[in-house]
Write a structure and sequence with these properties.
The complex is a heterodimer.
Chain A: H1 6-17, H2 21-24, E1 28-36, E2 42-43, H3 44-57, E3 59-73, E4 76-87, E5 92-104, E6 107-115, H4 118-121
Parallel strand pairs in A: 1-6
Antiparallel strand pairs in A: 1-2, 3-4, 4-5, 5-6
Chain B: H1 3-13, H2 17-21, E1 24-32, E2 38-39, H3 40-52, E3 57-68, E4 71-81, E5 87-99, E6 102-110, H4 113-117
Parallel strand pairs in B: 1-6
Antiparallel strand pairs in B: 1-2, 3-4, 4-5, 5-6
Classes of the chains: A alpha+beta, B alpha+beta.
C-alpha cells in the first residue's frame, strides 16, 4: 500500500477512528511534526502521543470519510475529510477538515490539519 | 502561483466581494469553514460581502502551493485586521477546482474563532 494513496488514507483514517493513539504512531517518522488547526505543532512520537491522547480524552467517538483526495506529488498527499465526532455529552457533530501529508520513505514527517472543531468542545446549545 | 490564481486572491485581499465572486462559474460552490456552501456568484458575493463587513483587512501569505491536475491546494497564513485595529493571523487552506478560467468549486478550511475572541479578554 503506497503512502499517500486513497487506500493508505482509508487505513490511516481507520487508525485515527480507533481512538488508540498507538495505532496512529507507526504512521509517523520519529521526528514528525503534526499541526492541528491553530495549535502549536506536536513534535515527534511523544508529542503526538500526548497531544492526540488529550484530544481523544475530550471526545466519545470519531469517524472519518474522505470525499476528496489529491496527490500533488509522490511525497505529498492531500485529504479532504468529513468527520463525525461524538461529544462527551453524546451529541454528534459532523465537520469538514483538510489534511496535508508530507511523506518520507512511506511515513509522515509533516502533517498539517486545517479544521474548526469548536463545535466539538463548545458548551451544549 | 499562476497569474490567474493571483488575481483571485488579490480580489479577496482587496475585500472586493463582487470581483472575487466573478471568478466563479454560475453553478460553482464556495464553502468557508463549517458553514453551508454558497452556490453561484450572487450567493458568494452576498456571503463574502457579509463577512467583509466584520473585518477591516485581510492578507494571505502563502506557505505551500500544491497542484494536482486542475486542482490547486493553497495553504496560507491569513492575517485579519479587526475593526478595533487588532491583528490576528490564523492558518488556512483552500482547495480550488478550476474549469478553464473559472472556479468550479472552492473549499476553504480555517478556524476563525480567534477573530471573535481576540478582543474579548
Amino acid at each position: 500500500m503506497t503512502a499517500g494513496s486513497p487506500e493508505w488514507l482509508a487505513a490511516f483514517t481507520a487508525a485515527i477512528d480507533t481512538r488508540d493513539v498507538e495505532q496512529l504512531i507507526p504512521y509517523f517518522t520519529p521526528d514528525a511534526s503534526f499541526t492541528f488547526g491553530n495549535n502549536p505543532p506536536m513534535q515527534g512520537h511523544e508529542g503526538i502521543r500526548a497531544g492526540i491522547g488529550a484530544f481523544y480524552s475530550g471526545i466519545a467517538g470519531i469517524s472519518h470519510t474522505v470525499p476528496h483526495s489529491h496527490q500533488p506529488s509522490p511525497e505529498v498527499s492531500v485529504a479532504e475529510f468529513v468527520t463525525t465526532y461524538t461529544r462527551l455529552d453524546g451529541d454528534a457533530v459532523t465537520l469538514p477538515g483538510l489534511g496535508v501529508f508530507e511523506l518520507s520513505d512511506g511515513l509522515i514527517h509533516t502533517y498539517r490539519v486545517y479544521a474548526d472543531v469548536t463545535p466539538v468542545f463548545a458548551p451544549a446549545a | 502561483m499562476t497569474t490567474w490564481l493571483r488575481a483571485v486572491y488579490d480580489d479577496a485581499d482587496a475585500m472586493d466581494a463582487s470581483a472575487f465572486a466573478s471568478h466563479f462559474k454560475d453553478d460553482a460552490s464556495f464553502t468557508l469553514g463549517n458553514n453551508p456552501p454558497m452556490v453561484g456568484p450572487e450567493q458568494i458575493k452576498a456571503g463574502l460581502g457579509g463577512f467583509f463587513t466584520t473585518i477591516s483587512g485581510m492578507r494571505h501569505t502563502f506557505t505551500h502551493e500544491l497542484t494536482a491536475g486542475s486542482t490547486e491546494v493553497m495553504e496560507a497564513d491569513v492575517t485579519y485586521t479587526l475593526p478595533t485595529g487588532t491583528v490576528v493571523t490564523v492558518p488556512g487552506a483552500s482547495v480550488i477546482e478550476r474549469d478553464g478560467d473559472k472556479i468550479a468549486a472552492m473549499r476553504s478550511y480555517i478556524d476563525l474563532l480567534p477573530l471573535f475572541t481576540a478582543d474579548a479578554s
